[in-house]
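Hi everyone, sorry if this is the wrong subforum. Our group has a chain we'd like a structural model of before ordering constructs, and none of us has done structure prediction before. Sequence below.
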Amino acid sequence: MTYSVLDTFAGAGGFSLGFQLAGAKVIGAIEIDQWASETFQFNHPDATVIQSDIKRMTDKQILDTFGGTPPDIILGGPPCQGFSICNKNNGDHKDPRNSLFEEFIRVGRLLKPQIMIMENVPNLIKARTASYELVIDIITSELRKIGYHIDYKILEATNYGIPQIRKRLFVVASRTKLIAPFPEKTHTTMRSPYLMEAHLGICPTLWDAISDLPTLDAREGKEEAEYTIPPQNDYQGILRQGAATLFNHKAMNHSKRLVERFASMSCGHSTSDVPDHLRPLKRNGTEFSEKTYDQNNRRMHPDRPCHTIPASFYANFVHPYQNRNFTAREGARIQSFPDWYIFKGKPTVVSHKLLHREGRLEEKHLCQYNQVGNAVPPLLAKAIAQNILHQLRSQYAGSRQ
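Answer:
Right subforum, don't worry. Here is the predicted structure as tokens:
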């Protein structure tokens, strides 16, 4: 039996891609951003992709679009800003019942899927409202009210073979209680695992993920190019399967001074470790900036998993051997996107804060880097999907006996 998936707050589609790789059918998506919607539609040509603010969609629109043959599974990652937990000092700890989470609940109430899965940041476990209620307790309570059994857990991406230290919270809501709502660990980062973990695979490193991609200097590369060498390991072979051309591998347009700064850095070093004469300058000035951000432009170690890929990773990480930031494709590799998955829109855009300040909202889109960094790693989603789909099929087979 093939199960159908609707992705809400879909972004570029990493979450639902994992379910597709596990054998499910992606029937649709709801996403507010134009470029992310274009990426989703291009890579899922048979899906119904609604580019809209979900808050503006009426119940009738949702039912008319997806209610004819309702999805078996609904996925979603309501933005964490809705829970006011990203900035602990912002003094605005909203109730999730007044946030975009309520829209996730609404879609579930209307379409009544067998499974709903919400992804979010790990800190959601600790977040409290202004009245000191745990946000996770409110979320689980609201899902129970519409008829679901609830399980939640923080999963680490490296435990499932993704070359990136990335923890995410997953809340699984099921009509029928699942025996094992979360997948067993399949990988370890230890080169010599303990005897009890000898059955686990070794998690790929950053270099395992990207070493076959063409060497680029700053300002080099194209949106569409050719591979120059064959896959160097199983991880690369899996992600290159089905891709004859390399997409989204274009280096940032770094200045000569920034390249010199990167050249001065060893693995583990960041902007705060560079020589004085290469320190960042104040914006539009010639004086040195008094602020240094320790997490900006850190050169990654090749023989370890990468740090968490955030939405703005083009300014976070420096290639382990080349004097530039990662390309969008390198980020996609670290996130475990297959190479045939093509990201639409521009590689980068001007700061969203600047666009908002200047009223240039028509230019405010999720660039390729944002789309990659915001995504659920597809191979992590695939592990979750395989585990849940197996149980759904077992339940279905049992009900037919």
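For your construct planning: The first strand starts at residue 4 and ends at 8. The mean pLDDT is 91.
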